[in-house]
Amino acid sequence: HVSNHKQQQEEEEAKRINGRLVQKMMDALVKPQLQDDGYDDDLDNDDDNNNNNNNGVLAEDLLQMLDLEFIGPYQDLKYFVLLAIRELARSTFQIDRQANKKFITAQQLLKSKNNKKKQQQLLLLHQQEEEIGRQKYVGTIAENLLRILIKIDIVSSNDQLVPSDTKNGMSSNYLIPPPKSDNSTPTDDEQDDDNETDEEDDNDDDDDDDSHKDSSSEEEEEQQEKEEDGKSGKRKGANNNGFIRRKRVKNEQNNKPSYQQSSKHCRLLQESWLEILKIPHLPSRSLKLALQHLPHKVLPIVSSPLRFADFCIRAYDDTGSAVTSILALHSLYYLMLNHGLEYPMFYASLYKLVTPHVFYAKHRTRFFKLLSNCLTKSQMLPGYLVAAFCKRLCRCALSAPPSGCLFVLALVSNLLRKHAACACLIHRGNGNSIEDLFDSESNDPATSRAIESSLWELNSLGRHYHPAVATLAKACGTEDEKSPYYNIDEFMLHTYKSLFEQERNKAETKKKKKPVVPLTFKPPKSLFIKPNGEHDLFGSILMLPSPTKQTE
Q1: What is the pLDDT of residue 533?
Q2: Burial (Cβ within 10 Å: 0-12, 13-18, ≥19) of residue 243
Q3: HEC states along 168-208?
Q4: b/e for 251-287, b at 16 or more Cβ within 10 A?
Q5: 292-315, pLDDT tens digit by residue?
Q6: Which residues are registered as beta bridge partners of 529?
Q7: Considering just the CA atoms, what is the radius of gyration of the chain in Å?
Q8: Which of 3-7, 133-137, 320-324, 395-399 is modeled with the greatest confidence?
Q9: In angstroms, rounded to a whole number, what is the distance separating the alpha carbons of residues 481 and 468?
Q10: pTM of the model
Q11: Cα separation of 149 and 167, whole Å?
């Protein structure tokens, strides 16, 4: 009987994908080959198109082939690839931490020995070079894992995990179709994954999408439903049938393999992202790529988005790149808006990013949209905060391109009309010269004293060389209450090219129009006669009779 059971289990495992084989394949893909001459310096380059295979980074063609022919079409392969990515990222992090400890102890031992200074310095430099090479090696592995992980799209419901187009034991969305029997035994990889996710559920209090409840809670729910069913005698049979049907569906879903449960896919996706982001030597270009995908493709799907808050805060605190801070603030804004994250310094951090350099940044459109949503969606912002943003935006617009000036003027106009307390920025002084008390070097809106200043920058922008900027600056702050607000999305898309094309189209439309003949605005009372009653030059040449004689 035991031998038959083992044989049956081996036959069922043969019908599934071998997770360890997938992990070995992923290990061979993501780990670069060690070379005697070390690594190239291109790993530290921030060029997003740097996919040279010589430095160990996977080529984009290989990633596309992996997505189109291996990962993308098959749901079971997505699950096992996610499992392999999580395990590889976890082992890489542990190996890196142990190697870092060994490097620190070796440095301390070398400094404590009584060696000559030159020899000691050479040994220290050699160890530091080896450590830099190891960090690049670990960063390359993390970058390859992240680029593969971004290619994986997770389904949102269990209905999408049902085998489709099953013919002759084959399925279009499964490499190996799942077994039809309900009592399917999970493989070792699935069992390890189930045990780990159960332990994580016990420690995670923010997991709202947990599909497996404790037995005690299930018994309480069953008892409550039975008590409610017993209150109404007429509907008792229907309620019991509904309860039995729901219980049957739940049991059927729990008996399915892990790769047929959408909750397991989402949980494994979350753990894979967290394990990769824990690796400290992730290159800056990969960090930016991760921050671009988090608010759109990861945070809305995973079960516990707040577990990414620490990573986003650390990425923002990294003052090496303003683009990284902008992308990290986008994720923080999503967590604050949808998941109740408390980040008291959010507006102060956003105010710090408003600099003239951001108007020339690559991701300025994303930042403008985030800035507009943060300032216009809330009606409870204090007046000093809105005044500080208006003042700093207008000050930056003095050195910004015309497209940035148009966005600033439209946003400031909407803010001044929404917050009546900031109207003093327009009317203060009444044309007289006053002292500007605004502290432009302060990064704290509370200490900038913007509410005590005035928007004299609008007068300067009213003399801008671009006619659209000058017209909008003269109208800013003077609109009526009935005038509609500006659509900020239209001003975000302006560039030098779009503004040039707009002006050129205006000139072409003027040329196509027919010339208009100028007409007098005052109808004449008579021909060839001046207003005083005398003939003009043409009347005297034609020798017309005088008007006085005609009247007589």
Answers
A1: 63
A2: middle
A3: CCECCCCCCCCCCCCCCCCCHHHHHHHHHHHHHHHHCCCCC
A4: eeeeebbbbbbbbbbbbbbbbbbbbbbbbebbbbbbb
A5: 999 988 999 998 999 999 999 888
A6: 535
A7: 35
A8: 395-399
A9: 22
A10: 0.71
A11: 30
